[in-house]
Automatic annotation (TrEMBL):
<keyword id="KW-0479">Metal-binding</keyword>
<feature type="active site" description="Proton acceptor">
    <location>
        <position position="87"/>
    </location>
</feature>
<feature type="binding site">
    <location>
        <position position="89"/>
    </location>
    <ligand>
        <name>Ca(2+)</name>
    </ligand>
</feature>
<feature type="binding site">
    <location>
        <position position="26"/>
    </location>
    <ligand>
        <name>Ca(2+)</name>
    </ligand>
</feature>
<feature type="binding site">
    <location>
        <position position="27"/>
    </location>
    <ligand>
        <name>Ca(2+)</name>
    </ligand>
</feature>
<keyword id="KW-0106">Calcium</keyword>
<comment type="similarity">
    <text>Belongs to the paraoxonase family.</text>
</comment>
<dbReference type="InterPro" id="IPR051288">
    <property type="entry name" value="Serum_paraoxonase/arylesterase"/>
</dbReference>
<dbReference type="InterPro" id="IPR011042">
    <property type="entry name" value="6-blade_b-propeller_TolB-like"/>
</dbReference>
<dbReference type="InterPro" id="IPR002640">
    <property type="entry name" value="Arylesterase"/>
</dbReference>
<protein>
    <recommendedName>
        <fullName>Paraoxonase</fullName>
        <ecNumber>3.1.1.2</ecNumber>
    </recommendedName>
</protein>
<keyword id="KW-0378">Hydrolase</keyword>
<dbReference type="GO" id="GO:0046872">
    <property type="term" value="F:metal ion binding"/>
</dbReference>
<keyword id="KW-0325">Glycoprotein</keyword>
<dbReference type="GO" id="GO:0004064">
    <property type="term" value="F:arylesterase activity"/>
</dbReference>
<keyword id="KW-1015">Disulfide bond</keyword>
Length: 157
């Protein structure tokens, strides 16, 4: 049976921990230009937490022949960084790049819409979406619904 199988750990010579991401990543998304956006720092009440620091967002440029150095994205004003607890991320691109970040401050669920400014390595807060129907484990459905309605929302700005 699966429960009695012994797992063999395989050493992969090119795999190594990435500095600044020692505690892992909850989600990532890859932009068409090879830039990877990563969410870190998820604190879940049923899982062990390895850091007390609030969540963060990073980029890694996969198009360069670099050492996979993550760059922390600066967060703009108007956003509560102390309670940032990013779960899943999704992206919508037209001429600009919008991130949808499922956030769990104080064990609640909301979606943050952030504008990605690549030149500044920053995120600009656009809007928080809160609704009673958003809950912790509806991430995939939430993200696809939000992406479908984003074009309408952006037209209303």
């Amino acid at each position: 049976t699966l429960a009695s199988r012994k797992l063999v750990q395989t050493h992969l010579p090119n795999c190594h921990p990435i500095k600044s991401l020692e505690y892992g990543s909850e989600d990532l998304t890859i932009l068409p230009n090879g830039l990877v956006i990563i969410s870190t720092g998820l604190k879940d009440p049923v899982l062990p937490s390895y850091s007390d620091a609030p969540g963060k967002m990073y980029t890694i440029d996969m198009s360069e022949d670099s050492r996979m150095k993550p760059v922390e994205l600066r967060m703009g004003r108007g956003f509560d960084l102390d309670s940032f607890n990013p779960h899943g991320i999704s992206v919508y691109t037209d001429e600009t790049v919008y991130l949808f970040v499922v956030n769990h401050p104080q064990q609640k669920t909301q979606v943050e819409i952030l504008l990605f400014v690549e030149e500044d390595h920053s995120l600009v807060y656009v809007k928080t979406i809160k609704h009673e129907f958003l809950h912790r484990y509806a991430r995939a459905r939430v993200m696809s619904l939000l992406q479908a309605s984003l074009v309408y929302y952006l037209d209303c700005l």
